[in-house]
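R.M. (postdoc): so does anyone remember the format we settled on? I'll just put the structure tokens first.
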């Protein structure tokens, strides 16, 4: 079985927006046969959580980009605009 990839999903408050994004990522990666788990957080919590071994950060709000793991900033799961491209970026980031 393939290794499960861990994705940190952040937004401003870690309530509604990150929930929509996390569920969208989980569904689309499952369709591609990529096992993922997501954890939602506030953008202000990223620096402390990044040490927990995440493979990728997907965020809807600005966060530092020098965290040592890939960061994808997107609103595509909310707007639908560019969603396929972002799904491809996520899959690509997780394939490394």
């Amino acid at each position: 079985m393939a290794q499960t990839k861990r994705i940190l999903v952040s937004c401003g408050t870690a309530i509604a927006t990150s929930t929509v994004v996390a569920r969208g990522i989980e569904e689309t990666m499952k369709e591609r046969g990529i096992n993922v788990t997501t954890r939602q957080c506030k953008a202000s919590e990223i620096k402390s959580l990044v040490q927990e071994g995440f493979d990728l950060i997907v965020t809807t709000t600005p966060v530092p980009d020098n965290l040592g793991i890939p960061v994808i900033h997107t609103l595509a799961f909310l707007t639908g605009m560019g969603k396929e491209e972002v799904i491809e970026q996520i899959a690509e980031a997780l394939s490394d």
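R.M.: ...and that's the designed sequence above, right after the tokens. Also worth knowing: Residues 16-31 form the longest helix (16 residues). Residues 5-95 form a domain with the Rossmann fold fold (CATH 3.40.50.2300).
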